[in-house]
Amino acid sequence: MTVQKITEYCLSKPYAVLEYPHGLEPAVFKVVGKSFATIYQKNGTTRIGLKCEPMLADILCQQYPAITPMYRSPHWIYILNDGSVPDDEVRRQIDHSHELIMKSLTKKTRERIKRERHPLYLFPDSSYKPFDILEGEEYFSNGIFVFNITRMLEHIAAHRGEYALGEIKVADYMTSFNQITPEKCAGADIRNPLILAEISPRRYNVIDGNHRLARAHYNGVDSLHVYMLSPKQHSLFITERKAYDTYIEYWNGKLQYDSEA
């Protein structure tokens, strides 16, 4: 196997990451900070370091001259990648090493990394800072979550390439806005896109543009343009730190993990 193929296979294992804690050599593959594989390249040779049960390590070392015990470590082996050890055997030992690490993790740790690998898992953004609502600024309140709409609109205007412009059916979002009378929404400019925020997974709320939505309804307009903001995008405009942290926890608690391996 080439070094690239070995690297790709190691990284294909669940929760695996590649690090270089000692410089360019060795490449170290870890799961939650625990190493399960290393790749050393020196003088034209490549050695793969893998965790291994001692009894199995003895058998492998007797079967393949290219497999040797790691110095002072009965729980690790080296595989000299010279082609004498079949690729299937190399992959099998990578699997075995990774499995040993996974078995060593606590149930709590396994559950945590399972959650964090969810494609929609939301990590706190280091760039977040509370946007206090100044006099004259617009805001939207959803329970304890208050969004500074004025700052949000300013950011969208300055970074339009970061926001997807979509389209919605007016009828799909009208159920909550029947109290807005035609007179109250007469001045709303429906040419301006609404802002929808994914407050919980796959559920979007209108956080800016309710009057535009109502006017479109009364004028018989079928659809409107909208900016559809992801949690990572809209949460940055929450006005209080405590509410921001609560929202991160709330969002992650709504995710479904049944399909995770």
Q: How does this model look, in words?
A:
- It is a single chain.
- This protein has 261 residues and is of the alpha+beta class.
- The protein has two domains: 3-116, Alpha-Beta Complex (Aspartate Aminotransferase, domain 1); 139-254.
- Helix content is 32%, strand content 26%.
- The protein is built from eight helices and twelve strands.
- Strands 1-2-3-4-6-5 form a six-stranded antiparallel sheet. It has a four-stranded mixed sheet with strand order 9-12-10-11. A two-stranded antiparallel sheet has the order 7-8.
- A hairpin with a 2-residue loop joins strand 2 (27-31) and strand 3.
- The radius of gyration is 27 Å and the shape is elongated.
Write a brief caption for the model.
This protein is an alpha+beta fold and 261 residues long.
Ordered list of secondary-structure elements with their pairings:
Elements: H1 3-11, E1 17-19, E2 27-31, E3 34-42, E4 45-51, H2 54-63, E5 67-70, E6 73-80, H3 87-104, H4 107-116, E7 139-142, E8 145-148, H5 149-158, E9 165-169, E10 194-200, E11 203-208, H6 210-218, E12 223-229, H7 231-234, H8 241-254
Parallel strand pairs: 10-12
Antiparallel strand pairs: 1-2, 2-3, 3-4, 4-6, 5-6, 7-8, 9-12, 10-11
Number of separate strands: 12
Radius of gyration in whole Å, from Cα?
27 Å
What is the first-to-last residue Cα distance? 27 Å
| Mean of all residue-level pLDDT scores | 91
Assembly context of the chains: single chain
Q: β content, as a range?
A: 25-35%
Bin the helical content: 25-40%
Number of domains: 2
Structural class, from secondary structure content?
alpha+beta
Order of helices and strands: HEEEEHEEHHEEHEEEHEHH
* Tally of separate helices: 8
Q: Within the largest sheet, what's the order of strands?
A: 1-2-3-4-6-5
Please tell me what the overall shape is.
elongated
Describe the main β-sheet briefly: 6 strands, antiparallel
* Poorly predicted tracts of residues: none
